[in-house]
Task: structure prediction
Amino acid sequence: MNYHYFHKHSKNNKVNSNMINLKTSMPVKLKKPCYDFFLFSLLVSMVFLTSCDVADSENEPTGEETPYFSYQIKENQAVMVNCEKINFIAESGGDYVQPIFAASASTNSTFSYAFYGSAEIIDTLSTGEYPIIPYTGWASQIPMHFSLKVPRTKGGNDFYLTINSDSPEHKHLIDLIEKKGLENGMRVYFVQGSYNLQAKNVVDSDTVNISGKYFFKLLTIEE
Result:
């Protein structure tokens, strides 16, 4: 697998099928660690737009510590995306939040996520429910959220986008936060989550449930 990185400043995140976009601006600083799921900042966030590869029968995640995400539209076959080449790396410590976009060129799917850059703050987090937010196509400033854009068929362009839902069945859970050792001077955490969200198709407004799991490797800053 060949990975290419470049800087691109744009509000709209468009992924070239042959390249990885690394999109960067300033990180968001929150006044204090919090779990306010409705907190928005007026600052533009530091965003990484990076890439994962779709897993097939010969390319499943290779072990318990292999990063991945998966999604399943209604009762269709689940799609697992191998992200073993991807590390989410904090650019700032303190109470900065590091939003992430990660895209799969093979499936044409994209997810949005964000984590605290400080190992000290990650240490204070507990497992449980965290926010699902509507997919907007650009950075969110809500920490530990999850949002998704996936095509109706793998590799297609008729996308389902995450939307708001009041149903208690639609939730995002962080099931595991595991502190590991140091890597290049940064504290490693593995975060495992699961979700069941509501999404609407941009072509015909079809509304469906999408469920899945993820396992991310976060590199944070110890202060």
